């Protein structure tokens, strides 16, 4: 009877965690003119969410319940282990992406607040840094991530030029 109650609890957790994973994998809705700092903020938010989830999963309360279910040879543990693995991967991806995107952070200010001439001076270094991220990041080097990043960089450059033209 205790095992059944604990299995019910784990099944509720499983359902909630699956929902978090599904939501994290959905396509983001962003404004058409959002800049590259939004990319960093997105991954920081994901890192925070998944790290909190990992902390909860690693808590002593959850570990005790899982240990009891292991001793009872519960069938719910297979699903639980798979979700634990997926959460760990998602947390590692977010952490890694934040680390790599922080290398671009020094370009975000000049990209947003400089004149078009100054922006152009930063482009070679910016592109070199993006290229290094593409070559070395185990998670961020997909066409989807790179396209999203380039779109946001382009948006920021356009916004900077519009501001310059309207103020000039």
Describe it.
The protein is mainly alpha-helical and 168 residues long. The protein has one domain. The protein contains seven helices and no strands. It has helices spanning 2-25, 37-57, 60-71, 76-102, 105-113, 116-136, 143-167. α5 runs antiparallel to α6 (116-136). The radius of gyration is 21 Å and the shape is elongated. InterPro entries: DHC, Dynein_heavy_tail. This is DYH5 protein. One of its GO terms (molecular function) is dynein intermediate chain binding.
Briefly characterize the structure:
Helices cover 83% and strands 0% of the residues.
Percent of residues in beta strands: under 5%
Distance between the termini: 75 Å
The number of helical runs is 7
- Count of spatially separate domains: 1
The amount of helix comes to: over 70%
Mean pLDDT rating:
92
Describe the global form.
elongated
Structural class: mainly alpha
Show unreliable segments.
Answer: none
Order of helices and strands: HHHHHHH
Largest sheet descriptor: none
What integer value in Å does the Rg equal? 21 Å
Total strand segments: 0
Protein name: DYH5 protein
Domain Dynein heavy chain tail: 4-166
GO molecular function, one term: dynein light intermediate chain binding
Pfam families: DHC_N1
Pick out its properties.
dynein light intermediate chain binding, DHC, Dynein_heavy_tail, dynein intermediate chain binding, elongated, 7 helices, 83% helix, 168 residues
């Amino acid at each position: 009877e205790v095992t059944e109650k604990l299995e019910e609890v784990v099944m509720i957790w499983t359902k909630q965690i699956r929902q978090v994973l599904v939501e994290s994998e959905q396509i983001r809705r962003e404004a058409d003119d959002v800049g590259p700092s939004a990319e960093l903020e997105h991954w920081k938010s994901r890192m925070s969410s998944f790290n909190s989830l990992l902390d909860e999963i690693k808590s002593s309360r959850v570990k005790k319940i899982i240990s009891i279910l292991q001793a009872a040879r519960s069938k719910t543990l297979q699903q639980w282990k798979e979700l634990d693995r997926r959460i760990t991967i998602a947390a590692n991806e977010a952490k890694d992406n934040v680390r790599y995107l922080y290398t671009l952070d020094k370009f975000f200010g000049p990209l947003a607040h400089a004149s078009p001439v100054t922006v152009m001076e930063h482009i070679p270094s910016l592109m070199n840094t993006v290229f290094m991220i593409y070559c070395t990041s185990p998670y961020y080097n997909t066409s989807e991530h790179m396209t999203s990043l380039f779109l946001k960089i382009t948006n920021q450059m356009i916004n900077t030029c519009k501001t310059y033209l309207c103020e000039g």
